[in-house]
Design goal:
Blueprint: H1 8-29, H2 37-48, E1 54-59, E2 68-75, E3 78-81, E4 90-91, H3 95-100, E5 106-108, H4 117-122, E6 131-138, E7 144-151, H5 159-206, E8 217-224, E9 232-239, E10 243-251, H6 255-270, H7 279-290, E11 300-308, E12 313-319, E13 325-328, E14 333-336, E15 356-359, E16 365-369, H8 371-374, H9 385-396, H10 401-416, E17 425-432
Antiparallel strand pairs: 1-2, 1-7, 2-3, 2-4, 5-6, 6-7, 8-17, 9-10, 10-11, 11-12, 12-15, 13-14, 13-16, 16-17
Helix pairs in contact: 1-2, 1-5, 2-5, 5-6, 6-7, 9-10
Length: about 425
């Protein structure tokens, strides 16, 4: 360091302050993420030395009848930190009460005559102190707080000590504030995470417990959530005459709001007054009941089909969902199963749903999926897309349904190169085996 405006000694002070805050930041945000207030305060004060002999932090009282409560005290290299409201010592009618009410820094060269029995009863070592430097700060909820630094000698703090103690005092106050906020946020996160896990468990109870058993049809399913709860939904409905209804749906958004709409959609399908057929009417009924009952911006994409195992056909209707892919064993070609139009459910009372029927033959394979598949991204932010899906479908179509599903999933995960899935993902594979 070369400068005519600052001496080497002054620069050493700057470096020491830099090291002090580096210690604080490392303790709060770095490898000591699980550090307690005791750990951080002791590390700061004991590692960098102190220009004082004792420190206390006072906060506004949590209960009526008290002037303040004692949150932290540090003396002789040890810290006492009071975290629970029921165990926080409170005080009133004393010297500490006077300092706790000040809203600007206060330096008192000799407090001997000001200390009261209440002060010493609360903090016994105060009886040995003479000098006090009080620094107003704030607590976790914005309530007034005060950090006070003490020295045994009278008039112990000169300009240099006061400057250092100002930095030290506010650093300690920020330590406590940051750790308090982190503890509060961690507690809120744990509670929220517990609730979302419960929602996720309930939601999984809504999904089919086992795959359907229908002669001539082979099934495989993959279901994964990007968060604790999901907006993806799939279901099977056993129908007369060797037919089965298959729904795959995706609620806009993620988490608990999407999970609630997913549950609504399932309820509407399972309380449909007739057999869930034909597909166009089923989607129209669900849409009519969802319109006006969703939050702004919410909607549900859905593809509902009825597979006739005896006649070997699929009758389907689409509400803005991803088009399933069909591998035709006879020609070896892949194509999408799509209708001309159909809005997502819950958008407009007239969804414009259409219905079509297509033949199936032995060896044909259909993959139903949600957009978490085609929109999966790699490190270069490229999307997986439908061409890759068609390629892996064509390459694995001669294998059983479970192997086809595993091949698709392995290809997606390999494409993502370790990147986590950003959306919920559901895959249903249907193979016509006879």
């Amino acid at each position: 360091m070369e400068s005519e405006k600052i001496t080497g000694k002054e620069w050493d002070t700057v470096l020491e302050m830099s090291r002090l805050f580096e210690t604080i930041n490392t303790s709060l945000l770095g490898g000591s993420g699980n550090a307690t207030p005791h750990d951080v305060i002791n590390l700061v004060l004991n590692s960098h030395g102190t220009a004082c002999d004792g420190v206390v932090s006072l906060y506004s009282p949590p209960f009526p009848g008290e002037d303040f409560h004692l949150s932290m005290e540090h003396f002789n290299g040890a810290t006492t930190y009071h975290g629970g409201l029921n165990t926080i010592p409170g005080g009133s009618d004393g010297f500490l009460s006077h300092l706790a009410t000040r809203r600007e820094p206060c330096l008192m060269p000799d407090i001997s005559a000001s200390l009261t029995g209440n002060d010493v009863k609360l903090i016994p070592w105060l009886g040995d102190m003479k000098t006090a430097l009080a620094l107003p700060t704030v607590g976790i909820t914005g309530q007034p707080a005060t950090t006070i630094l003490f020295a045994r000698e009278a008039d112990a703090f000169g300009r240099e000590e006061v400057s250092r103690n100002l930095v030290l005092g506010y650093a300690l106050a920020n330590c406590l504030l940051t750790m308090g906020i982190r503890q509060e946020s961690d507690a809120v996160y744990r509670d929220l995470d517990t609730e979302l896990k419960s929602i996720g468990r309930i939601q999984r109870e809504f999904l089919p417990k086992k795959l359907p058993t229908i002669e001539g049809l082979e099934w495989a399913v993959y279901y994964a959530t990007s968060t604790r709860a999901s907006g993806d939904y799939y279901d099977f409905f056993i129908l007369p005459d060797n037919r089965i209804g298959v729904i795959i749906a995706d609620v806009s958004g993620h988490g608990s709001p999407a999970a609630v709409v997913m549950a609504m959609t399932r309820l509407l399908l399972h309380t449909y007054p007739h057999d869930v057929t034909p597909p166009k009417e089923v989607l129209g009924n669900v849409n009519k009941l969802l319109v006006g009952n969703l939050l702004p911006g919410q909607f549900v994409t859905a593809f509902y089909s009825v597979i006739d195992a005896r006649e070997k056909s699929i009758t389907y209707s689409n509400a803005g969902h991803c088009h399933p892919h069909l591998f035709q064993a006879k020609s070896g070609a892949t194509e999408t199963i799509q209708t001309g139009k159909g809005l997502p459910l819950g958008v407009m009372s007239n969804g414009g749903f259409e219905e079509q029927t297509a033949p199936l033959e032995g060896g044909d394979v259909i993959i139903f999926y949600t957009d978490g598949l085609r929109e999966a991204m790699n490190n270069a932010r490229e999307q997986y897309g439908e061409k890759r899906l068609q390629r892996v479908l064509k390459a694995s179509a001669m294998r059983p349904a479970e192997d086809i599903k595993n091949a698709v999933l392995a290809d997606v995960l390999s494409f993502c190169e370790g990147e986590p899935l950003r959306d919920d993902l559901t895959i249903i594979v249907l193979k016509v085996v006879a």
